[in-house]
């Protein structure tokens, strides 16, 4: 009987060291950006009920949090502000002594080399919870751009290393780039939320940032989850307007989009592993249904395999600890 010829792919899976040798995708702690929610007040460390292990932290307790972040080798954070007072135009977002601006100064005082990404949006600061100026129930595009430019400049003045506009207004990158350049911040890059879907995965974040819309939804400015080609149009516009990084948000249900964007644009691609994706794993692990570390690390590896160069994730501290154990 003639012997059947076939490939023996299992030869390269025979041992742990063999599997490690041929592994194609590697996670590094430098890949992660850790989100922080900074709240006004004193001695505030409030765990977000829908995000176990994530806290709203006041400025006086920020140093302790930064100590841990830096000790784990994490080199980048993204700051979200949780102000006490809000108004219809989100003036706290662009106030020179707003919560993100003050948090940035505090970070730079203790750890000047830690990269600070400033989330540049209005929704946490508006009393209606939308990402711009509202008139007759509709978010005005061009009028909102003026406030976003003011916000970006004030964040850069405070010491932010990267401006990350997340509002999805048309022309927001061009407007912010021009504003930063004219204010003397030509060296500050823009990490654009270029591909941001109107997703159901954002619920826990809105608890953390107190940014739930008070009426309607954000579907007139965030993208339809059913659309793929639209993502390429959005990314192309932002690249042409001067974006230095492209964010795809959410990440887990949009790995095809991450790969599309990676294949089409020569820029660092950032996957935002959002709050709902984090909380799903935390909840399942708390019930004993899954191995949290195994599932989280598989997810993060998958995002990098899909094309992400950088991952914004609430798992950053946990993942950094797991990577340390693996190397030990």
TrEMBL record:
InterPro entries: ALAD, ALAD_AS, Aldolase_TIM
Binding site for Mg(2+): 234
GO MF annotation: an example: zinc ion binding
Keywords assigned by UniProt, alphabetized: Heme biosynthesis, Lyase, Magnesium, Metal-binding, Porphyrin biosynthesis, Zinc
Pfam family, one: ALAD
Superkingdom of origin: Bacteria
Active site: 196 (schiff-base intermediate with substrate), 249 (schiff-base intermediate with substrate)
Reported cofactor(s): Zn(2+)
Keyword Transcription regulation: no
Pathway entry: Porphyrin-containing compound metabolism; protoporphyrin-IX biosynthesis; coproporphyrinogen-III from 5-aminolevulinate: step 1/4
Broad class of enzyme this protein falls into: lyase
Residues involved in Zn(2+) binding: 121, 123, 131
Residues reported in the UniProt entry to bind 5-aminolevulinate 2: 275, 314
Gene Ontology cellular-component terms listed: cytosol
Catalytic activity: 2 5-aminolevulinate = porphobilinogen + 2 H2O + H(+)
UniProt entry tagged with the keyword Transmembrane: no
GO biological process: heme biosynthetic process
EC number: 4.2.1.24
Ligand binding (5-aminolevulinate 1): 206, 218
Family statement: Belongs to the ALAD family.
Subunit structure of this chain's protein: Homooctamer.
Role played: Catalyzes an early step in the biosynthesis of tetrapyrroles. Binds two molecules of 5-aminolevulinate per subunit, each at a distinct site, and catalyzes their condensation to form porphobilinogen.
Protein name: Delta-aminolevulinic acid dehydratase
